[in-house]
Amino acid sequence: MTTPAKLRWGVLGAAGIARRSVIPGLQRSQHNEVKALASRDGEKARQTADEFGIEAAYGSYEELLSDPAIEAVYIPLPNHLHREWTIRALEAGKHVLCEKPLALTAAEAEEMALAAQKAGRQLAEAFMYRHHPRYAMIREVVASGELGELRSLHATFTFNSAGSSGNVRFVKEWGGGGLYDVGCYPITAARLLLGAEPEAVTARALFSPEHGGVDMMASGLLEFPGGIAATFDCGMWGAYRNTLELLGTEGFLEVPSAFVAGTEGETGFYVTTGSGRRYVEVPQVDHFSLEADDFARTVRLGEPQRFPPQDAVANMRVLEACLRSAEQRVRVELQPVSAGSAEAAAAVEAMDSADGAGSVPASDSFQSKGDPS
């Protein structure tokens, strides 16, 4: 069988996540190559391109999108720019991998998904951790019944950047705040591992006037069908943690480093039952490379997306409901997604292929990274 040509990428912006993780991951992957980088600062673009041995450097995003050699674009721009530049890239005929969260609202995410469909191009949200083999292994443990019936899930993702200055995460109008930045990880994990959508959410947050009024810390409760509760805490003003625990009637599973895993450090997890406690070894692999290769196989070989855009739409429904709950201090009920809708069907397919003051209904949307260069 002939090996397909590598997918040719361009990067819009020189954000830290792009430099630290995604560009190296693309370059280490099997089926991808980075051919161009753009920045609003032409000198910065050239310096970053030289640092990574990238051929072309552009002083504007438009120049990169007009390059016919570029087939796919990675977008690590601040959250409020995701919608605009994703749609512009799709309309330019490029496939798009966009940083999380895909948008600021579910309505924006749906617009982006429809733009991808209209353009006949692939769109994916960059949750790299879901592509790591350990999540398929965790789901296998759950499916085996070893933990018994699932009762609850708890996840954390916190770090302390309160002392930093000029942080785009502190700009509310740009989609700043801890829920959008790291709270989206526990939410996706709960939906993935529980295989369902929450029926209601309650969240509380610390909105800091010192940090543009964004949520610097937040805690949430997601109510899933069958009485299963998923709880989480997240934010940018606490000691570093990124953990996950699944509790069943017969045992529990712990992931010490749930959302960060590289070629070094701990990637495995613990399973504790009446038979004892064991550590499950997991290969140390680059989940950024795995994410890129999954994307390339979809483009080149036509393999189904593991997590299609409709999954991002569903996740945004929950994320914006959490933000609304925290701001209004209310429990927010999520309207059921029609079982026959494309969104519901795609969300279920995505998961299967991954081996206070009373209640108010959730609205359709709620207005609420990276380096804008």
From TrEMBL:
The keyword Oxidoreductase applies. The keyword Oxidoreductase applies. Belongs to the Gfo/Idh/MocA family. Residues 7-125 form the Gfo/Idh/MocA-like oxidoreductase N-terminal domain. Residues 135-253 form the GFO/IDH/MocA-like oxidoreductase domain. This is Gfo/Idh/MocA family oxidoreductase. Residues 362-373 have a biased composition (Polar residues). Residues 343-373 are annotated as: Disordered. Coiled coil: none annotated. Residues 343-357 have a biased composition (Low complexity). It comes from Paenibacillus albicereus. SUPFAM superfamilies: Glyceraldehyde-3-phosphate dehydrogenase-like, C-terminal domain, NAD(P)-binding Rossmann-fold domains. Keywords: Oxidoreductase. One of its GO terms (molecular function) is oxidoreductase activity.
